[in-house]
Design brief:
Elements lengths: L2 H14 L8 E7 L18 H8 L2 E7 L5 H10 L27 H7 L3 E6 L21 E4 L13 E4 L2 E4 L6 H18 L4 E5 L12 H10 L7 E2 L11 E2 L1 H25 L6 E7 L11 H4 L14 H4 E7 L8 E3 L3 E2 L3 H9 L13 H4 L12 E7 L4 E9 L2 E6 L5 E4 L15 H14 L7
Parallel strand pairs: 1-7, 1-10, 2-12, 2-13, 3-4, 3-7
Antiparallel strand pairs: 2-11, 4-5, 5-6, 8-9, 10-11, 14-15, 15-16, 16-17
Helix pairs in contact: 1-4, 5-7, 6-7
Length: 458
């Protein structure tokens, strides 16, 4: 750790810890491969998510929030570092997760909370390398006091692994254990423990739901199989690095069942906050790491998972990167409100820094949206533009890039011409305007070149 980084953290801890009791708790729930249209508060009609919808009806719903990338690992890296994907080292899902770990020289999200005297816990899919290898970068070496979840991103493709990891130790699981529910129990325990000890906390829940495989608790799965019997001849198959990964009879039903189960667990968190008397002192945010997937038998077309937006996971059209985003903080965030503020995952780090009174880490590319949360729209700063790049292979060669500047959206895939869209008139990216606006195309290319930092570390 660099000296100035350590000194800043130590100073911040010294003056913040005395007032930590009055600091708001933060629960950040990160769904995995949840599309923009997969929640009923964003238009989903074939299933309902009433408890997650409470975050919208009792808080703020974003309509122009974006994930950090279009796949899991780089999106999480953007969230943790506050760097956009043109600067962040991890820009794709790296095979074997080698090299996916965060830079230990950087101040990352949970370290801001630690500096402010918070207890920190992460529960679910880390997605930034292995979580059980002693001495290697993992959640516990990046500011989390506690971690419970899968030992790797690959194994998180199954909800029935043979082991899970609790605070760096790999522990056996009884055959047939639905590990998601076990992980959520750890999150519930963390919330209760710290609330009762009057310790402010950051609870990060990067669930694997609804990532494939489309596994769900048996009782709920059977319920939805009866509702969608016409799909019962469809089998969802998936693999998870040699771990047990049962096939799914009717993955359409599996998706609905896993969403109902997860929605009920969000409801349990909200009830818990009320019972513990910390409801008005807790910020709850809910979003997704990228767009809807098409794996393990999941059918985003049937569910209209992208909400009509073009694209899915692994591309840079709106359906691949625009994410649902909800924020609830009773007494501070106005209930039932909506914002079209353009924001992205890199903005979470500076938002937290401002919320806690901490200095913003030097690597940051984001802009705090705390003013938006507080309803002070006239004080909200805006991005000049947002940039994304998605890379593939061990050398992370650029596959696609995107820029959003106000209502202009540019998309460029390797080997193809740049496409240009006016999202105000064409939110579904149907009409490519590149030939009509050559000056804007040129400006967008310049922004892509400006925002891309060549990778030097391998």
């Amino acid at each position: 750790m660099r000296l100035h980084h350590f000194t800043a953290l130590l100073f911040a801890f010294t003056w913040q810890v005395a007032s930590a009791k009055d600091s708001p708790n933060v629960i950040y729930i990160l769904a995995d491969d949840l599309g923009y249209g997969d929640l009923s508060c964003y238009g989903q009609e074939k299933l309902q998510t009433p408890h997650i919808d409470r975050l919208a009806s009792e808080g703020l719903r974003f309509t122009a929030h974006y994930s950090g990338n279009t796949v899991c690992t780089p999106s999480r890296a953007v969230l943790m570092t506050g760097q956009h994907s043109g600067n962040c080292y991890v820009r794709g899902n790296l095979k074997g997760e080698v090299g996916a770990a965060l830079d230990p020289e950087m101040t990352v999200l949970p370290e801001l909370f630690k500096a402010a005297g918070y207890a920190t816990g992460a529960f679910g899919k880390w997605g930034l390398g292995h979580t059980h290898v002693e001495g290697s970068p993992n959640p516990l070496t990046h500011g989390f006091d506690e971690f419970a979840g899968w030992k790797s991103q690959t194994i998180a493709h199954t909800y029935y692994p043979t082991t899970w990891v609790v605070n760096g130790k790999e522990l056996p699981l009884e055959e047939g254990t639905y590990v998601h529910d076990l992980i959520m129990e750890k999150a519930f325990e963390f919330i209760e423990k710290n609330a009762k000890s009057d310790t402010p906390f950051f609870c990060y829940i990067p669930t694997a739901v609804p990532h494939a495989a489309m596994h769900a608790p048996a009782e709920l799965h059977e319920k939805w199989r009866k509702k969608f019997p016409k799909f019962d001849n469809k089998i969802g198959k998936y693999g998870a690095g040699g771990e047990p990964c049962p096939d799914v009879q009717n993955p359409i039903a599996g998706f609905a069942a896993m969403m109902e189960n997860f929605d009920n667990q969000v409801g349990r968190i909200l009830a818990q906050l009320e019972e513990l008397g910390i409801d008005e002192n807790t910020v709850v945010m809910f979003t997704s790491d990228n767009g809807a997937h098409k794996e393990g038998g999941h059918d985003p077309k049937f569910w209209r998972s992208s909400g009509g937006l073009r694209g899915h996971k692994r591309d840079m059209h709106e359906g691949g990167i625009r994410a649902p985003m909800l924020a609830r903080w009773p007494g501070t965030i106005a209930a039932g409100t909506t914002t079209d503020h353009i924001s992205s995952f890199q903005d979470v780090l500076p938002t937290v820094a401002e919320l806690l009174g901490q200095g913003i880490p030097e690597q940051n590319d984001g802009i705090s949206f705390l003013a938006t949360l507080q309803g002070k729209t006239e004080e909200q700063k805006q991005h000049d533009y947002l940039y994304w790049e998605f890379c593939q292979g061990a050398d992370q060669k650029i596959h696609s890039q995107a820029v959003r500047k106000e209502n202009w959206k540019a998309f460029r895939q390797r080997g193809k011409k740049l496409e240009l869209y006016d999202l105000a008139k064409d939110p579904f990216e149907k009409n490519d305007l590149a030939s009509l606006f050559p000056d804007e195309v040129k400006a967008m290319v310049e922004r892509m070149e400006e925002a891309h930092t060549p990778l030097t570390k391998q």
